[in-house]
Amino acid sequence: MTTHAPLLAGAWRAAPAAAPTLHSVNPATGAALPDTYPVSDWAALEAALLAARAAQAALLARPDAAEAVAAFLEAYAVQLEARVDELVELAHTETALPREPRLRTSEFPRTARQLRQAAAAARHGAWRHATIDAGLNIRSYYAPLDGPVFVIGPNNFPFAFNAVSGGDFAAAIATGHPVIAKAHPGHLSTTRVLAEAAFAALQTSSLPAAFVQLIYHLAPEDGLRLVSHPLLGATAFTGSRPVGLSLKAAADAAGKPIYLELSSVNPTFILPGALAERPAALVDDYLGSVLMGGGQFCTNPGLVLLVDNADSRAFVEAVAARFAAAKPSVLLSPAAPQHLTHAVGELAAHGAEVLLGGRPVPDTAACFANTLLRVSGDAFLADPIALQHEAFGPAALMVLARDGAQLAAIAETLEGSLTGGFYTHSGADDDALYAHLAPIARRKVGRLLNNKLPTGVAVSPAMMHGGPYPSSGHPGFTAVGLPAAMLRFAALQCFDNVRADRLPPELRNPNPTGRLWRFIDGEWTQGDVPSA
């Protein structure tokens, strides 16, 4: 059994011998995995903060800071690709996610791609939104926050949302922030190898060695202390609502930015015309989305809203039959069935009928039966908040409303979600109902879809992965999509009557690259500031 050292202040530094340790578990077998990892104490965390602050100061003093971080991100992508076989095998063992196509063909390339997109965004500099009023000689742009970013990643994406390789990491680095990453307990070895690749890339780059640091675990009270620390720039967290809100309370009390992804039921409206037109195709689409990855996607369409008629009842029956026939997936951890049991129990206690499933699969380490629940529109409206309790896994709730008016009333009660969408008739049959419902839904979700389900989150500059509370902590920001995701880790700085040689290059009269878009005297342009 090996106890691995965290990556702190530019070196792999062994924890004290008396430090508590933890290990990941193979969810397919329930067996503890052999490698152990230390819980870092406050002294280690404070040392990480000090090293990160020094690393950021050294970077920001350089005129080539953007090129330095871009070169590192590209080198890191290359290092990851050289270890793809090892990483896929570790992630499969620690999460039970399929090697193919999920880990190797889908998630891993996405991770390397977003690192390279972050590099391109850092070089281009458009995220700075350089704005110049030449007449008044007032100029502003976005710059890095004062301090490193603490990233806490989730368990369901061991690469693409990992604290040491995912979108939060990439955006923070690209804006010029060192990252202190906290591994998820569910995939400790995967995260260690990712950090090894990052450290190797640092050795070949010009960034300070402490620009990427990794801790495996910390005491809850130390987490609260860290997110509120004066030396920290910001925190990015993806995980449970109770933990996220406790961190937010601590960060808010200290005036520290924190960006949260918490919970989301992702309401999907299937309108009557669509059901009458293509019922079988809709069943296929829905099954492919809601059970993908064992339902363990933050964009899983866990709430379906229908008008109660013969077609919608047939749809629910067809989905139930397909749920019953589908083999349950191994979930991400042995604790997942316990959480699902609680969530389904909460829904049932507030009026939902369990049509099938609702319990762990016997004699398995981490399986839960595919679960379908149904509730009337009247019952939903009687307790709408409780009936939006997130059941993170292979579970869905079907809501059958009396008519379109009640569907609109239900839409008004929806909490914020990352996504939401509509299936409608290919002609005009659903247009009137859609026109009534869509403006309501638009206020409730970050990404609105038509005639597709939300489980795919494209790595696109136009992507929004965020939304109203409780899906995220702030509806104005996205965790996916560059350069927009970088603005979470930026401070708006203004220069008033500062002479030219004291301005950052992006705000001087000549365009520093010739291709940077700047907002000059009310117009976006790639030109220079006009001479007086």
What does this structure look like?
This protein is of the alpha/beta class and 532 residues long. It has 2 domains: 37-262, Aldehyde Dehydrogenase, Chain A, domain 1 (3-Layer(aba) Sandwich); 267-450, Aldehyde Dehydrogenase, Chain A, domain 2. 37% of the residues lie in helices and 18% in strands. It contains 15 helices and 22 strands. The protein has helices at residues 42-60, 65-82, 84-95, 99-124, 167-174, 188-204, 220-227, 241-253, 272-277, 279-290, 310-325, 336-349, 377-382, 404-412, 431-444, and strands spanning 7-8, 11-12, 21-22, 37-40, 131-133, 138-144, 149-152, 179-182, 212-215, 217-218, 234-238, 258-261, 267-270, 303-307, 353-356, 371-376, 395-401, 417-423, 445-450, 490-496, 518-520, 523-525. The strands form 5 sheets. A 7-stranded mixed beta sheet has the order 15-16-17-14-13-18-19, sandwiched between helices. A 5-stranded mixed beta sheet has the order 20-6-5-21-22, with no helix packed on it. Helix 15 links the parallel strand 18 (417-423) and strand 19. Helix 2 (65-82) runs antiparallel to helix 4 (99-124) and helix 14 runs parallel beside helix 15. The radius of gyration is 24 Å and the shape is globular.
